[in-house]
Amino acid sequence: MLLSNFSEFGLECGTDEAGRGCLAGPVTAAAIILPEGFELDLLNDSKQLSEKIREKLKPILEEKAISFSVTHLEPKIIDEINILNASIKAMQECVLKLNPTPLYIIVDGNRFKPVNNIPYSTIIKGDSKYMSIAAASVLAKTYRDEYMNTIHEEFPMYNWKKNKGYPTLEHREAIRKYGTTIYHRMSFRLLPEQLKIDF
Length: 199
Fold this sequence. Notes:
Subcellular location: Cytoplasm
Catalytic activity: Endonucleolytic cleavage to 5'-phosphomonoester
Cofactor: Mg(2+); Mn(2+)
Structural class: alpha/beta
EC number: 3.1.26.4
Mean pLDDT: 95
Low-confidence stretches: none
Helix content: 25-40%
Distance between the termini: 49 Å
Largest sheet: 5 strands, mixed
Number of strands: 5
InterPro entries: RNase_HII, RNase_HII/HIII, RNase_HII/HIII_dom, RNaseH-like_sf, RNaseH_sf
């Protein structure tokens, strides 16, 4: 059973990201403020839900939210500042886009950096404990999947429509065969047996 609020504040936002472990594509974050007393039966950590259910929940969350936002950070930025910092930056940017400004932030995971002195708490496995973090995880995942489906059209040989940029055997085989694209994260170990890739 997901809990509604962590803090005493009414305007509390939850934030989460998707795509941290991928070899290609952006890291995508979402932040959302849900109305008081919000309930949604199927809502859970996005990893526990099927794609069909996530797609069903997305428009409901968007319609019912007081405010929500989504941010994609490109591979180039991930390579420059590393994936942990990029994940945090994407979540911070989402929080800054919310209107009204939240009075408290709850973050999935154990790392975050302050945004405009808004108090926050990091919650390990927060996406399976709190409604707003679960909602943010669903939005981050659905928006990122959409993005990957779009860039799949540009480079169909990597089958991003299916693997979404994660390090599947098929994705790695395609990197070995076709090399890398502008969407690949060059700071990641793209092929297991090579520390540095020369194409």
